[in-house]
Write a structure and sequence with these properties.
The protein has 366 residues and is of the alpha+beta class. Helix content is 32%, strand content 13%.
Length: 366
C-alpha cells in the first residue's frame, strides 16, 4: 500500500510508493484538486503520473529492479549508446528467500544485488554507494569492478584491518586483477584509494560473510609459519586446473602463470598439473601443446547439489577462457550501469603516464 503524505504549501499531495521487488522507492506527484478513484477493500491505490512525470521518467531512464527485469520495457529513448550488445538481467535473485551463490561462482548481478541490499540494511543509500564506487575510478572510463576487487582481497585472506591489509595485500596487484586496470594508468595513489574504498564499503560486507575469505592452507607448504613470516601468504591463488590454493612462490618449477592480456587476469596452473598433463605431438608451444585436466563444480547455488566435472583443456585455452570471463564481467557491469540510466562512453580514452614511468609487475614476486 502506498503511504500518502500530507499536502505541502502549494496544495500538492505527495504519494510515496514502495516497490516490493527492490529497495527502491519512487515518489509520484499528483496535481492539486485531482481526486483519486475509490479503492475497494483490500485494494491498492494507484497514482496517475502527470505529463511532467512522464517526461521525467523518460529522461531519467528509471532503474528496473532486478526481480522485475522480466517485465521491463526494452530500450528507453534516453538509454546511453554503447558498443556492448543489449543484455537482460542474468542474475538468479528472482524469488523470495534467495541467497547469494558461493563467491567463486557468483555472477556480477548476484553479487551487486546482495552487496547493495546489505548496504541499505546498514543505512546507506544503495544508489549513492554504487555511484561513489564508480566515480572513485572514473579515470578508467569503466564501471567499478566491485566483485573483482572483493574477490581478490578475500583470496588474500581478507582485509581484516587497515594495518593488516597494508602488510599482507598489495593493492597495486589487486587493481591489476580487475577490469578497471589499464597499462600506464595515472592512479599513483591507487593503493590508498582502494584501501579507503574497501574499508568504507566492502569491509562491513566482508565481516558479514566470513565464508568468503580463503582459509584453506597452501597445497605446497601448508601455510607453515616460516612461509607466513616471509610474507608469501599474501599472494595465494587457486590453480585454474585442480583448484588447489597455492602461494605464488610455492607454485613450483614449471608452473604456468602469465598475464593473458595487458589488462586482464593472470592465468595460473600449478607445476603438478602441468607435469601430469599430456602433450599434443611435438608442438614447441607449451601453452598450446600441454593438455591438463580442469576440475570444476556445478550447481553450487542455493538449494542445488554440488557436482564435480572434469574437462581436458590446453593451457592456452585456460588462458583464453580467463580473458573471456574478464571481458564478460566488464560487459555485464556496463549493462547494469546502462540499465540504471547512467552514461557510459565506449570510446573513452583514459589518461596514461609516459612509458618510462611504467612499473613492471612480476607474477611470482607478488
Amino acid at each position: 500500500m502506498p503511504d500518502v503524505a500530507a499536502s505541502d504549501a502549494t496544495g500538492t499531495r505527495l504519494v510515496r510508493v514502495e516497490l516490493a521487488c527492490s529497495a527502491v522507492a519512487v515518489t509520484a506527484t499528483l496535481t492539486p484538486g485531482k481526486t483519486d478513484p475509490p479503492v475497494a477493500a483490500g485494494g491498492t491505490a494507484k497514482a496517475e503520473p502527470t505529463e511532467t512525470e512522464a517526461a521525467a521518467d523518460a529522461a531519467d531512464a528509471v532503474l528496473v529492479p532486478a526481480t522485475c527485469a522480466a517485465t521491463a520495457a526494452t530500450t528507453s529513448p534516453s538509454r546511453p549508446a554503447t558498443s556492448f550488445p543489449e543484455e537482460t538481467y542474468q542474475g538468479t535473485a528472482t524469488r523470495a528467500g534467495w541467497k547469494r551463490p558461493a563467491l567463486e561462482t557468483c555472477a556480477p548481478e548476484d553479487f551487486m544485488f546482495d552487496f547493495l541490499r546489505a548496504a541499505e540494511a546498514r543505512g546507506d543509500d544503495w544508489e549513492c554507494v554504487w555511484d561513489f564506487l564508480d566515480n572513485a575510478l572514473r579515470r578508467t572510463g569503466k564501471p567499478c569492478d566491485v566483485l573483482g576487487l572483493y574477490r581478490e582481497v578475500c583470496m588474500h585472506g581478507g582485509y581484516i584491518t587497515r594495518e593488516s591489509a597494508k602488510r599482507r595485500v598489495k593493492m597495486g596487484y589487486v587493481f591489476a586483477q580487475t577490469h578497471n586496470f589499464y597499462r600506464r594508468h595515472t592512479y599513483t595513489d591507487i593503493g590508498n584509494k582502494l584501501l579507503d574504498l574497501y574499508e568504507r564499503f566492502l569491509l562491513p560486507y566482508e565481516n558479514e560473510h566470513p565464508e568468503d575469505i580463503l582459509v584453506e592452507p597452501c597445497a605446497a607448504c601448508g601455510d607453515a609459519p616460516e612461509s607466513q613470516s616471509a610474507g608469501v601468504h599474501a599472494s595465494k591463488a587457486r590453480c585454474d586446473a585442480c583448484a588447489a590454493p597455492y602461494h605464488r612462490r610455492c607454485a613450483g618449477t614449471g608452473a604456468f602463470q602469465r598475464a593473458s592480456l595487458v589488462e586482464r587476469f593472470t592465468s595460473f596452473v600449478c607445476a603438478a598439473c602441468v607435469r601430469n598433463g599430456s602433450r599434443n605431438g611435438s608442438n614447441d608451444d607449451v601453452a598450446n601443446a600441454t593438455v591438463v585436466t580442469v576440475v570444476s563444480t556445478a550447481g553450487s547455488g542455493s538449494g542445488s547439489p554440488t557436482r564435480e566435472r572434469k574437462q581436458k583443456r590446453t593451457l592456452a585455452e585456460i588462458d583464453a577462457r580467463g580473458s573471456a570471463d574478464a571481458d564478460e564481467a566488464e560487459a555485464r557491469y556496463v549493462a547494469m550501469r546502462v540499465r540504471r540510466g547512467r552514461a557510459f562512453k565506449a570510446d573513452f580514452e583514459p589518461p596514461t603516464r609516459r612509458a618510462d614511468t611504467d612499473a613492471t609487475l612480476v607474477g611470482p614476486a607478488l
